[in-house]
């Protein structure tokens, strides 16, 4: 897969360690300057498959390695590797330099605190549901994990581009880019409407998609996001009359409207309180409605489904001994990830095989042409995905320059109205795969395509005759990828799975809630990461095909990405320090590292010590034993405006940022100038703000705001592009095998989570 790719990990922050780990998992030769004395508790996992070279980042040893590296990874503290970076373009023009910088947070801030500060600065903290509407700190460093995965994805995309152009380039993925993906379900702004109230409690705003306490005291997650599941669940619970109530009147989106959600939730909660959790889970399974017990934090590697998917890996680390850790978040069947090997500490190192950085045009053209449309220009992806994870995967690949076609039935993806923003950048081909003529038309499109993605449940592809084996008879080099809830093996294989189901079963909800109620994450953490993992796997498979000439199939499940998104916290060994848990409206891990209320909003602070707080005039010079630091700091801050607090703390040597909303972001000229958000107009002129550019490539595409396609808007265009005649297309449309539609003109923000 990435065999022969030399990766020099010069990162200081953990995000670079993790990105390099992901590349090492797929065969890259990774060398990291450093030592074991400064390693974080998660290092046995994040440095697996690497050689740790005892050398300074600016040493002659490292400069020599950089001259022949294919990839160099930095994380913003460039001063520690300044000489190496200065030499990149001069001595190694084929190197891909991945820069994983923070967003509005200095390099002096520790990694975990930096993640919290970026959550505040990007609006994520203010979007989480809470009891009082204040910001909530994610107990897991979601932005760090997303930034690492997306950074690795963009790096492989740049390697693909290098196969054709013969040149490397600078690729920048910063903390705001990570937030754009992490918050993909909610980072859509209607400037004419106020930010939604988040004071809905720990269980979220959508009653059919929420947690409930059962008669035995155990918690259950009801995952009835779609109408078909709501109908089945409400009938089972004996509350089917909710849907015929005049306040709902059969309109399922009214279930989570502000005026209805409280009484709807109360009815559902009353029903669940009548029977034990296990009884309800059995009954819900019988009616095929997604649901899960809310499992304890930190135990996901022991779950039978995790074991079946080989997520629990064990290595013998040279420093801490036997270590249990999650495996990679994608499974490529044609070129599987390498089994984890323990980090190796060395005094000297050279690349283990000939670096491809000195072999211009290996596997591709060395004409020097650029890809102004993005690194994946020239590749076509067919996206059969529905709801969130599948469509978002296609949208991310479109952002990288691929021609992505959303293939959907004539009735459309049943989530396209609510989740229109997940389909941005794609063209729509609407056809009936169960119609023989529609299936033949689809196969003609496959012949001219490179990747086919789906998120059907196991078995559906084979029944439709479009599984990987069938498609290889049409296009031998085709790459196919599937997202499922639980994978294709194990006790839960084939079960329906949505993001909060995995939040519950993986222990995420329990970890966020700590000793309080479990917490439903407003960010669709597992769905969006599955989409990012699909993009990563697609790029890996495309790169492998460029070098080896063969396609393959890959799988991504919400189960394995749920392990990845808490990978550092799931690492276990005998001397491992305890993992931080959350709590009610969790503000952060300590009085010096958390959210506070100010006179006009909220602020996220990091103070190196109590002395810093004293210097910032947040605490008196003398503290009595047992004094509540958080209460004292809060008392001071609640009388000060946010700007004053930030100025005081930064002046004293700490870090602080206002906890803002997405609406605040959209109003910042710098955010629009730097293409983090951009305006997307409806046909009537109504504007929304949506993510604009997810990464910056030195030779990237011109920035444009990618819009959502209408159902079947591009059916004729796509079919004509593969050689189907106009007359044949007319016949397909008349027979109902293909649907032709128009542009999507009516879309709005839906607050379903």
From TrEMBL:
The keyword Transferase applies. SUPFAM superfamilies: CoA-transferase family III (CaiB/BaiF). Residues 351-372 are annotated as: Disordered. Keywords: Transferase. The keyword Calcium does not apply. InterPro entries: CoA-transferase_III, CoA-Trfase_fam_III, CoA-Trfase_III_dom3_sf, CoA-Trfase_III_dom_1_sf. It comes from the Bacteria. Residues 361-372 have a biased composition (Gly residues). GO terms for molecular function: transferase activity. Belongs to the CoA-transferase III family. This is Acyl-CoA transferase.
